[in-house]
Q: What sequence folds into this?
């Protein structure tokens, strides 16, 4: 296996990879798998990554690396959600299978669009296409930062919780909800209100959704 293509796997399998890439396939696969995760499908990926990591540790062979693989998966999951939302507003289900003319009309199968029956690219906000698949044996390119990584503003690791005041706030915009402090179940409810806020925020919607995905999925 030389290329990892997130499109070949179910959403459940991609999320499974995010959790387990780099772990020993024997260990991971001896437990029962989550719904939607096919053992044969995930084994090849887990084994390949495990082996590449072994070779890197023992022989110093470079490969694309787990972080880049995870970035490729995160991008696909994010795009998948975006496509779903776009399609709810009338766009074709898989926008990269079309070309888009200057008036914003899609043309399925137009020159430069993804060919065949499978998605292979996503389109960024400037209209540029990027491949979703990742070549595993190419080492990381020095100094290269993919457009979807925003190193100057990493996503927070948790919500802003003030146990004394009994508030839970969105760390991105400060949206706050109260709960009766001391109650774990009320805190959980407050957290889920913030989760709902993250999914529906109008201000910086993508960053809000990214944080929702990071903290709640
Ligand atoms: Zn917010």
A:
């Amino acid at each position: 296996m030389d290329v990892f293509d997130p499109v070949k796997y179910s959403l459940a399998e991609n999320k499974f990879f995010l959790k387990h890439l780099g772990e020993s396939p024997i260990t991971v696969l001896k437990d029962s798998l989550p719904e939607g995760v096919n053992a044969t499908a995930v084994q090849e990926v887990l084994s390949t990554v495990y082996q590449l990591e072994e070779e890197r540790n023992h022989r110093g062979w470079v490969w694309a690396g787990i972080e880049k693989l995870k970035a490729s998966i995160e991008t696909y999951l994010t795009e998948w959600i975006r496509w779903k939302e776009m399609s709810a507003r009338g766009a074709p289900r898989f926008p990269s299978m079309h070309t888009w003319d200057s008036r914003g009309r899609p043309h399925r199968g137009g020159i430069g669009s993804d060919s065949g029956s499978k998605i292979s690219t996503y389109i960024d906000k400037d209209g540029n296409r990027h491949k979703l698949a990742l070549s595993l044996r190419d080492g990381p390119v020095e100094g290269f930062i993919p457009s979807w990584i925003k190193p100057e503003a990493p996503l927070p690791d948790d919500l802003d919780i003030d146990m004394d005041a009994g508030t839970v706030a969105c760390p991105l915009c400060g949206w706050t909800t109260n709960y009766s402090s001391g109650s774990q179940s009320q805190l959980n409810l407050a957290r889920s209100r913030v989760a709902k806020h993250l999914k529906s925020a109008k201000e910086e919607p993508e960053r809000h959704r990214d944080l929702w995905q990071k903290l709640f999925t």
Observations:
- The first helix runs from residue 11 to 20.
- Residues 160-216 form one domain.
- Helices lie at 11-20, 25-30, 39-59, 66-88, 184-200, 205-216.
- The radius of gyration is 20 Å.
